[in-house]
Amino acid sequence: MSKAMIEDKENKNGSQNYDANSIQVLKGLEAVRRRPAMYIGDISTRGLHHLVYEVVDNSVDEAMAGFCDQIDVTIHPDQSITVSDNGRGIPVDMHPTQKKSALEVVMTMLHAGGKFEHSSYKVSGGLHGVGVSVVNALSAWCRVEVCRDGEVYFQEYRQGDPVEPVKKIGKRKKTGTTTTFLPDSTVFPKIDFSFDILAGRMRELAFLNPGLRIDLKSERPGREKQESFMFKGGLASFVEYLNESKNKLFKKPIAFDKELDGVGVSVAIQYNDGYSESICTYVNNISTIEGGTHLVGFRTAFTRTINNYAQKNNLTKNLNFQLAGEDSREGLAAVISVRVVDPQFEGQTKTKLGNSEVKGIVERVVGEYLAQYFEENPPVAKKIVEKTIEAARSREAARKAKELTRRKTALDNAALPGKLADCATTDPEEAEIYIVEGDSAGGSAKQGRNRRNQAILPLRGKILNVEKARIDKILANEEIKALITAMGCGIGGDEFNPEKARYHKIIIMTDADIDGSHIRTLILTFFFRHMKELIERGFIYIAQPPLYQVRKGKTEKYAYSDDERDLLVGQLGGDGVTIQRYKGLGEMNPEQLWHTTMNPETRTLLQVSMADAAQCEHLFSLLMGDEIEPRREFIQQNATYVRNLDV
Prior knowledge:
This protein is an alpha+beta fold. It folds into 3 domains: about 35-230, 2-Layer Sandwich (Heat Shock Protein 90), CATH 3.30.565.10; about 235-400, Ribosomal Protein S5, domain 2 (2-Layer Sandwich); about 425-545 and about 580-610, Rossmann fold (3-Layer(aba) Sandwich), CATH 3.40.50. Helix 3 runs parallel beside helix 6, helix 8 runs parallel beside helix 10 and helix 12 packs across helix 18 (about 590-600).
């Protein structure tokens, strides 16, 4: 049952003698500690939080099986995490082949658990994960307490190894499992759990499992916070959450749940008067941000049903063009959740469902239900068709502008925007582009850059808020046209092809003030709504220019926060130190800009990720949409958590 990892091993003098002695076998959890990124993605923020998700997923599997309705997640002051549930409790009796407690087998052996035997769990989100044994392996210490059969059982581990055998420590009538672990600082360079990141996943799980309550609590001094998640409405509540800050076309979401050929299909749909499509898809509680066969089946049935209803009721008689799939999805917020016994995942990040049979099942379930719903609710059906027709007319009006944009490919250098200072390399993996606020900063960036692989695109002022604009208006905006053309991958629907992206590092570089933050948010909104896959592929970054220059004599140092500024002042002795506060990028000369913000050896970049697609969708709609009241409430609720605010 152990996992073996094979590596080449050089001998002491550095030569490569490739024989039997060169083969190194890592047994059990040793492989996990040697190559943690293979199991949890990375050892930064994403991987750190993935540890919590793995433990919580075990509890959610109990909820999906009908044995758990309460999960508690606590962040302790020392950054250790406790996950507790009221499920059946991990089995503790002797394993028939391993000759040790089943609890120890689950906690210390890879690919061990009840999820591989379908009588224990019919479907399970953990099948896509790596298991709680990996969490144990990557923890400095881990403690598990199991309540079952009227007894309390306990075992402690150090870096994945049991300290002693499983033992009874008391009696208790209730059942459940409590796991507490501290991530190992020798594995993770920084251990600091984000309440908001965890809250996003807990909220998502509560939506997907109606009736399940998840309580999240932070006990860290100065960062105390608590939030509870439970949604009896399930996916209907989910789409209402996505549409919270938007005007809805109809009040009550269209929601249904059905099982066909062993596959469970749950769908919720609600339209708003906006122009963006917001579809979140899941398989066994796993977010499939790359979509897959369930999404294809949904879109096929959805478009066909709307077209059939429109034609049957003579609602398109005055149109001289066909309604397209993208027309029917304008303003659509939908959540699709399927339950599959043996899901097969593919794609770059293994977040794309590949089971071919699921497409036909979802297509049939969605098509049959929607056709019946439209017949029984003609006012809602007609609103959807009217919205689709309006979108189709706008698409036709924008067709010429789109075709013009499509022709401006990476090979057509003459069509590139005049303000773009392109780089010499044509290899997208080497090329990077800085999207810079203003001509002044753009000038400094052009002079300070490495011309071989760094391109500069200055944007003037605040670009259009695409959250409030249809595609024809977006394509008429000069700054956005320059942005689309420079990217080289087209925009919207079938015309967008991320494979044609001219740069694999797209860096947003704005001033460190309120206006700069607003411009950065507008640019991110554009990418999120119209080039989302560039975010999913990890191409989008945010530059981190310094806030201060701290100088004494000929010594110049740069600080990126107030704390770092104070530390540098102390290091330089205090007396005779001058501090310059940078209000804008244009205040730095080309050499300073290169050294602090553009030199790969010394710069700091923040990668924009799609760790929580639903939360991203909700926040962009809330912050950039039309509704003022939800935005005001969000600011009031979160103002106390702001750490850096430039005034």
